[in-house]
Amino acid sequence: MSLSYLYLTKDYALVCADSRMCGTLSNKKKVVMNDTAKKLYICGNSIIFLTGQCVTATNAYADISEIIATGNIDLEQIRAILQRHNNAFVRQLLEKGMMAQYLDDGLLVTLGLSLTTLVDGSPVNYYFQSSHNEFEPQISICEDGCEGQNLIQGAIKGDWDPGLDVWGQANEGLYNDRVEFIRALYRHANDAQVGGELTVYRLDKDGVELVLIEPIPDKKKYVYLSGNLQMLSGTINWSGVNSDPATGTALSAAQVAQASASAANNALSQFKGDIGFTTIGSQYVISPNIIGNKIYASRELAQQYIGTDAIGTIRGAHIVSSSITGGNINVDTDLTVGNNINIGSPSYTGAKNIRFDNGAVIKGQNTDMLISARALDIQGQYINFIGATFIDFGNIPVRNLAVTAKWG
């Protein structure tokens, strides 16, 4: 979470933030990830405070800073950018089934951005937050007669902690110096979620000035996540993560990676149980049984689906299918056909051949058939020519042919 305190007057603004990044364990216990998170950014004469899910906020800032740098602050464009990045993060939570856990941890604010800038020489604050009407900006300005506004912004339990507001109202008058009051506020708020360093910037007509950077004393010893995070392969060493927002990126990526790896491992275990003795290589699949709607082995289909014109090979003792389509089907042993062998189609009139080695050929075209062989033997006790009007042997001599004439 993050805590930002903003003191807004007509002539100047003080913008403050801590630097602690926290996480939530499975038992709901808050732990400190690091105390060096960057939450305040200076862009020209503007100060930007980021809160919520660190990776989402950092990515959104990269897009928004380009708009602010032009000097033309388009609130609707900023709102649209925040909405887009927030939707992407929420979609990831839903896809991973982690939304309920995220809400249960009290992290209701997935993204928030506070922009303090100058309008006509006076500071104005625009606060965009995911839990407030789809990032509709809340505008704060101190007009004539305004002695100063105290604004507490951030993501403590989803918004700002009302207890801090009550404490501030009760104790503000005890401090003559505004910076001393800010010190006391952050020391009072200190816990596993608020800590690290306190940074205070001042914004007025002359620009941005750094007022203070100092440690926030811890009230007690908090739990720090340190050492190595063991994954399925490799580790993340937290001692090697610096103060860059990449710390949050590493944590978020590790959490997503762990969830994805767990799901993949479960799926792989189930898959291994199903495939038995099947071996899948980069160029082949070896299995006792392959059952599928279509198995492609032709040059054209290989080009279409896998980008190569190589002809595939299907080898196996038994191929059971309602349809086998391919450029060439080679059967090295015996071919058993349960019903019919249909060669060609009724709409195609080209010749079809059944060739025996390099010699005899049975050629069919339309309703005609040609049997070509060096020697043709027809054996059988009875040979019937059914429906024949005539039999023409040409000039070929016919020997030992006994024909019984049937008349009538």
Q: CATH superfamily of the domain at 3-261, called what?
A: Aminohydrolase, N-terminal nucleophile (Ntn) domain
Shape: rod-shaped
| Share in helix | 25-40%
Radius of gyration: 40 Å
Number of strands: 19
What percentage of the residues does DSSP assign to strands (E)? Answer: 15-25%
Specify the biggest β-sheet: 5 strands, antiparallel
Kindly report how far apart the N and C termini lie: 108 Å
Oligomer: single chain
Biggest sheet, spatial arrangement of strands: 10-1-2-11-12
Give me the number of helical elements.
Answer: 7
Point out poorly predicted stretches: 228-236, 238-246, 271-275
CATH class descriptor of the domain at 3-261: Alpha Beta
Order of helices and strands: EEEEEEHHHEEEEHHEEEEHEEHEEE
> In CATH terms, what is the fold-level topology of the domain at 3-261?
Glutamine Phosphoribosylpyrophosphate, subunit 1, domain 1
Structural class: alpha+beta
Mean pLDDT: 75
How does CATH name the architecture of the domain at 3-261? 4-Layer Sandwich
